[in-house]
Amino acid sequence: MANLLHNLSFQKLFDIAADAMLLVDSSGHIVEANFAALQLLEYSEATICGLTVEALIPERFRGHHHQYRNGFFQNPEKRSMGDGRDLFALSSSGKELAVDIGLSPIKIQDQTYILITFYAADKRRETEQALRVSNERLELAKQAANLGVFDVDPQNLALHYDERILELWGKKPGETINYDEFIGVINPEDRVASAVEFNRCFDPAGDGKYYAEYRIKNPHDGVERWVSSVGEMHFKDGKAVRFVGVARDITKQKLTEKILQEQRIETESFYKQQIASHTASAIAHELNQPLAAISAYSEVALHELSHVNNHPEILIRALEGCVSQAQRAGTSLHELIAFLQVGELITERFDLNETVLDALNTTKGDGLIGLQPILQLDRNIPLVLGNKIQIQKVLVNLLRNAIEATNEKGQADSAIAVSVKIYTDKNMAHVSVEDRGHGISQELAERIFEPFFTTKSKGIGMGLLISRALIKANGGQLWLEQNASDGATFHFTLPFIPNHA
Ligand code: ADP
After folding, report:
1. What is the topology classification, in CATH, of domain 254-340?
2. 38-42, 172-176, 181-185: range with highest mean pLDDT
3. Measured in angstroms, how far is the CA atom of residue 393 from the centroid of ligand 1?
4. Ligand 1 in contact with 416 (CB < 6 A)?
């Protein structure tokens, strides 16, 4: 190799170099320019040689240049020019070219020259600028979302973090935090679950995704905060190499959820009491009739038995009457109890679209045929917080009513429209069930939410009352809208999970 280069002259290297190069003497005059320099600066060899380098510097930077040049010759050493400032070269047509400049002293026949190399800086500056903008954006997004970022090397558990993480973990800017401290601040009750979740991420066959909510106690002020942490393990050749994630303070959200839950329990127990008292009086009302009938039948039976020559067929009919009335009372009580069993209010985050689809399936599974729903589901709707089973129960009840009203009308077109969207006024989820059935008159509309109000021969008349109570217990509202033409539309709203952003 050394032999090869031995035959390569400086002149040759200078001419073929891809970067633009100038050779300048100690008085600042250009003595040589290579082909790339002539192209870049738009000069011919004849016009550039003899010029001082200052001719290639935009006028506003020219002032002190000869001093820099003299300084370089007093202490000639290889370096880049400009100390990180943006540099420009002036072409013969007056164009300013963004360049990086390298300076190398070179001795030729006892004379010191400077070899000036120009590197086009546009691309580098563009990339740097794009990186800066993207970093700024990321920083703004982090601030807006109140996010702290951590980056863990899974092999040695070395931890990198930003200032927000330090702040959350009770450290001052500039202080350090190691992995053990990071874990040590987590509430011991939550530590195991978050560690199990973290260990799960190491499995190359898994999705590497991490999600945990835990409490951390600030070691300085002792204040406990809730943190939600989302991360992802990165793998290389089946080996975990990097774990990056963000942590967010969700204390406020947790507090709101708790208050909401307490309010729900309170409202629910209030409605339960209301329903219980309505139910008690209604059960009495409901049982009155069969009991009166049973008593009448029993009197007939007794009367018949008091005669020596009684009529067995009258006796049989009276006793059969007793049995069927007792059965009727039993059946309506069972139906009532089954419907009233709303269960405990356990809330969860769920997708209303899915619950609508589940409710439709249940209704179809119940044998209610003729349901051809028109679905208008907002696929991007945020999750709601509530008791999924209860909401499904409400939907099934509304759908059943809609189907029955449509069937009763003898309507061939039994299309029912179910929509799920955002109720913009209140920032809540909004569900509506619209039918083309017999509709509800103004007079009936005032009574349909009353307990045991029904216009159906086999109805119980508790569905709408309970549905309304359930929606209210889940933080929303349920109401009727009479359609301008045929049918009726029932609407209800539900709250999104707090701070769903
Ligand atoms: P039930 O279905 O057992 O009668 P509900 O409380 O669910 O009890 O309904 C009460 C009454 O409201 C029904 O009997 C019916 O008269 C009326 N209703 C409910 N939904 C509709 C509807 N979509 N179209 C017409 N009438 C309805």
Report:
1. Helix Hairpins (1.10.287)
2. 38-42
3. 15
4. no
For the Cβ of 117 lying below 6 angstroms from any atom of ligand 1, the answer is: no
**For ligand 1, what atom is nearest to the CA of residue 438?**
25
DSSP string covering 162-199: -HHHHHHTT--TT----HHHHHHTB-HHHHHHHHHHHH
pLDDT tens-digit series, residues 190-230: 888 888 888 889 998 888 999 989 999 988 888 999 999 99
CATH class of 348-495: alpha beta
- Ranges 80-94, 215-229, 364-378: which has the least confidence: 364-378
Take residue 365 and report the two structure tokens written for it.
Answer: 């599974």
The answer, yes or no, to whether any atom of ligand 1 lies below 6 A from the CB of 423, is no
Give domain 2-124's CATH number out of 3.30.450.20, 3.30.200.20, 3.30.379.10, 1.10.357.10. 3.30.450.20
With a 6 Å cutoff on the Cβ, whether 184 touches ligand 1 is: no
The burial class, CB within 10 Å (0-12 / 13-18 / 19+), for 434 is: buried
Q: Determine which residue's CA is closest to atom 8 belonging to ligand 1.
A: 461
Q: Does the C-beta of 342 come closer than 6 Å to ligand 1?
A: no
Going along 63-201, which residue ranges are E strands? 79-80, 87-90, 96-108, 111-120, 147-153, 158-161
Q: Quick one: pLDDT band at residue 95, thresholds 50, 70, 90?
A: very high
Per-residue pLDDT for 369 more than 60?
Answer: no
Domain limits, the chain = 2-124, 146-249, 254-340, 348-495
- 407 Cβ inside 6 Å of ligand 1: no
- Confirm whether pTM is higher than 0.85: no
Provide the token pair at 2: 């050394």
SS3 414: coil
What span, in angstroms and rounded, lies between the C-alpha atoms of 148 and 142? 7
Q: Which residue has the higher pLDDT, 330 or 472?
A: 472
Q: Verify whether ligand 1 is closer than 6 Å to residue 397 (CB atom).
A: yes
146-249 has CATH 3.40.190.10 classification: no
Ligand 1 centroid to Cα of residue 115, in Å, is 94
Question: Which of the residue ranges 40-44, 339-343, 428-432 would you say has the lowest mean pLDDT?
Answer: 339-343
The Cα 468–Cα 182 span in angstroms is: 47
> Whole-angstrom Cα distance, residue 424 to residue 76?
71
* CB of 402 sitting under 6 A from ligand 1: yes
Atom 21 in ligand 1: which residue has the minimum CA distance?
401
